[in-house]
Amino acid sequence: MQLFLLIGQSNMAGRGVVEPQDQVTNPHIFMLTQYYEWLLAKDPVHFDRPALIGVGLCSEFARTLVKDDPKITVGLIPCAVGGTSLGEWKPGGELYTNAIVRAREAMKNGNLVGILWHQGESDIPGNPETYNERFAAMIQQLRSDLHAENVPVIVGELGHYLTQPNAAKLRTVLSELPKSLPICGFVSSEGLTPKVDNLHFDAPSLRTFGARYAAVWIEMTHKATRPLVGR
User: Fold this and answer.
1) In the chain, is it the N or the C terminus that has fewer CB atoms within a 10 Å radius of its CB?
2) CA distances for 116 relative to 21, 24, 158, 214, angstroms
3) Which run of H or of E encompasses 134?
4) What domains are there in the chain, each with its CATH number?
5) In angstroms, what CA-CA distances link 20 with 23, 32, 42, 45, 65?
6) Tell me, what's the pLDDT at 77?
7) pLDDT digits (tens, 9 = 90+) for 71-84
């Protein structure tokens, strides 16, 4: 399998309302369950908040890759946890350690080819000026621990509907990560819309976001077998 590690907070885990289309499985797309079992993927893929989990961006990400290359088999490694700050993902912490353990287990059945990150809402009240440095240090250690120095890291933008102080500044910081972090891609959230809570992307937006993540990964790895999708 071509494996993708999914880390960050709730907008990576997914809080979109699950619809029948999100329950359709694909024989080329698998997910690693909470109990380390490989099952055909369907939403919800994550399990961080059982009462809240729903549609995330990873399902459409995987579907887009398979549409582009029907020969690929995708393995999703869900590790995101809602409400978590970047500081909680530092090496040695519980979230980081769990991601390493799950990724290593998954890698017994495939190759890690992508790390997908969406996080930042919990850091809006903090100090965006240090986010770049702290994120780069975490990713550098993560790549080292997984022997994945050349694996692309793809970062998504915070929703434009977030208007709290520092939200725009943190969006800028995220957009500039590829300038300082090697093999890093950025995905725009332009035009995406929230649920009524004005915090989480709604399900249609998460599907669009997932396709955009896939297009960036395909472009970064030059693996497109047809014109890029998701743009």
Assistant:
1) C
2) 23, 22, 14, 10
3) helix 131-145
4) 2-221 (3.40.50.1110)
5) 5, 21, 10, 14, 21
6) 98
7) 999 999 999 999 99
